[in-house]
Automatic annotation (TrEMBL):
InterPro entries, A to Z: DUF3015
Record-given protein name: DUF3015 domain-containing protein
Organism: Candidatus Paraluminiphilus aquimaris
Length: 151
């Protein structure tokens, strides 16, 4: 029994309470509302009962800041213009999204296609999508598309 407790104590490197706050710093809420805690918590709970936030905090705490936050701020601050660029398949705001996603200033065709298809499929499957949900869908689409970027 002593060996098991020693082994378990060596699993985590940090102290209890270290790391990101799941509902505030992680998930779609933490990404879309990095400076407004109540909005981050509300968004995470509404989006998927906080499952994504807790999972990202537990499994990959490094995703709770950095690129994700920059992407979320960009999507939130320029959603209407991004929507127009995504419809046309090109434009300065789509280039900016590619840049903050870590995919370079000129988005690849694969990035644009992935974002367009994900957003189109998500929005067409919902009868009444509110602006915040559209922003979350776009963020998720861009984040997933950025995972395959080579630049």
């Amino acid at each position: 029994m002593l060996n098991a407790s020693v082994a378990l104590s060596q699993i985590g490197e940090g102290e209890a309470g270290e790391g990101p706050s799941p509902y505030v710093d992680c998930g779609i809420g933490g990404a879309l509302f990095p400076t407004t805690s109540w909005a981050a918590v509300t968004s995470n709970v509404i989006w998927d009962a906080g499952t994504t936030a807790v999972t990202s905090a537990t499994m990959s705490p490094e995703t709770c800041n950095g690129k994700s936050v920059a992407m979320a701020e960009y999507v939130k601050g320029s959603y209407a213009s991004l929507e127009m660029d995504i419809i046309s398949g090109r434009g300065a705001y789509l280039n900016g999204l590619s840049q903050v996603s870590g995919c370079g200033a000129e988005p690849s065709e694969a990035f644009v296609t992935a974002v367009r298809n994900s957003v189109k499929n998500a929005v067409s499957s919902e009868s009444a999508v509110v602006e915040q949900d559209k922003q979350a869908m776009l963020f998720n689409a861009a984040y997933n598309a950025s995972l395959s970027c080579t630049s």
